[in-house]
């Protein structure tokens, strides 16, 4: 709910003007709250997802991404998130969420996000997002969207982490489909 409210304020009330270019890092500062911690007295793993999304919303607002893609009738939907938990965040620990678009290809836009404080990296995430036409609900090529939206802007090279994420997802889909097929076969035998 917070994300929708923040988006509406930025888009319609605040009429937020971009302060960064679309490829810039956008940094937002937070502090671990009591409601963010779990029984291990550190930030709960699920809470990282909340802060990742907040970081992406702030990135959309601080760069031309939100206004330009919205005006083109395109939205970005998360396809996959890969998170590496490097070091735990303790209660009341200040931290930053650093967010940027690292690259794009014909299928996805890749975001890189870091949880940091000073020189310490607490968590790193790679997110791949599919671009979808708002009216038709069909996927569109990020390369085409970026060309149409940000004339002359070229994608930086796709980082190794995004390439590895694509390989991981392909392997995962193959393996999980095999498991699902085996479980379905067992269910069919049980029902016969």
Key phrases:
single chain, 192 residues, alpha+beta, Thiol Ester Dehydrase, Chain A, globular
Structure, described:
The protein has one domain (2-191): Roll (Thiol Ester Dehydrase, Chain A). The model has no long low-confidence stretch (mean pLDDT 88). The chain has helices at 2-13, 45-62, 65-71, 142-149, 160-191, and strands at residues 26-31, 74-85, 94-104, 109-117, 120-133, 139-140. Helix 1 packs parallel to helix 2 (45-62). The longest helix has 32 residues, at 160-191. Strands 1, 2, 3, 4, 5 and 6 form a 6-stranded antiparallel β-sheet that branches. With 192 residues, the protein is of the alpha+beta class.
Percent range of helical residues: 40-55%
Structural category: alpha+beta
Tally of alpha and pi helices:
5
Assign an overall shape.
globular
Q: How far is it from the N-terminal to the C-terminal residue, by CA?
A: 46 Å
Q: How are the elements arranged and paired?
A:
Blueprint: H1 2-13, E1 26-31, H2 45-62, H3 65-71, E2 74-85, E3 94-104, E4 109-117, E5 120-133, E6 139-140, H4 142-149, H5 160-191
Antiparallel strand pairs: 1-3, 2-5, 3-4, 4-5, 5-6
Give a short summary of the structure.
This protein is 40% helix and 28% strand. The chain has five helices and six strands, in the order H-E-H-H-E-E-E-E-E-H-H.
């Amino acid at each position: 709910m917070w994300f929708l409210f923040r988006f509406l304020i930025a888009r319609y009330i605040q009429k937020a003007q971009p302060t960064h270019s679309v490829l810039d890092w956008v940094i937002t500062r937070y502090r671990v709250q009591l409601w963010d911690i779990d029984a291990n007295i550190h930030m709960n793993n699920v809470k990282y997802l909340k802060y990742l999304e907040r970081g992406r919303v702030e990135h959309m607002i601080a760069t031309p991404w939100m206004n330009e893609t919205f005006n083109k009738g395109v939205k970005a939907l998360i396809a996959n998130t890969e998170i590496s938990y490097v070091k735990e965040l303790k209660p009341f620990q200040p931290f930053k969420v650093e967010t940027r678009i690292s690259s794009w290809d014909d299928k996805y836009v890749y975001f890189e996000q870091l949880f940091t404080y000073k020189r310490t990296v607490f968590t790193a995430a790679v997110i791949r997002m599919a671009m979808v036409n708002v009216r038709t609900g069909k996927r569109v090529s990020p390369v085409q969207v970026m060309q149409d939206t940000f004339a002359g802007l070229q994608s930086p090279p796709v980082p190794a982490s995004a390439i590895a994420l694509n390989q991981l997802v392909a392997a995962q889909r193959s393996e999980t489909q095999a498991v699902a097929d085996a479980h379905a076969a067992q269910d069919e035998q049980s029902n016969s």
